[in-house]
Amino acid sequence: YDQRMYICICNAVSDKAIHQAVGEGATSIRDLSFMTGCGTQCGSCVKHVREVLDQALAEAGEPRSQLRLQVISQG
Ligand code: FES
Q1: Is 47 in the pocket of ligand 1 (CB under 6 A)?
Q2: What are all long-range contacts of 56-63, with beta carbons under 8 Å and residues at least 24 apart?
Q3: How far is the CA of 73 from the centre of ligand 1 (A)?
Q4: How close is the Cα of 14 to the center of ligand 1, in Å?
Q5: With a 6 A CB cut-off, is 41 part of the ligand 1 pocket?
Q6: Which of 4, 33, 39, 64 has the most beta carbons within 10 angstroms of its beta carbon?
């Protein structure tokens, strides 16, 4: 994954920065706004931010849910 483009123009937040924030635990638009500043100015990027967020969560979420399943089945 090395594509880089700005999702939030106002705060120069790239899709890469959003993926990075999700890797650090962001799970919502609010988390991303807090961590990267995206969506805090004009707000026109929020829809696009959500798309990238959903994509990043889908990529990051699968190993986590597998881990959780494993823990549950062992417990
Ligand atoms: Fe993100 Fe304006 S483009 S707040």
Answers
A1: no
A2: 56/18, 56/19, 56/22, 56/23, 57/22, 57/27, 59/19, 60/22, 60/23
A3: 43
A4: 11
A5: yes
A6: 39
Residue 6 to residue 10: CA distance in whole angstroms: 9
Q: What does the pLDDT look like over 48-65, one tens digit per residue?
A: 999 999 999 998 866 555
Q: What is the pLDDT at residue 21?
A: 96
Provide the pLDDT for residue 63. 59
Q: Whose CA is nearest to atom 2 of ligand 1?
A: 42
Output the pTM of the full model: 0.77
* DSSP conformation class of 40: S
Q: Residue 4 corresponds to which tokens in the numbers above? A: 């880089």
Question: What DSSP character marks residue 24?
Answer: T
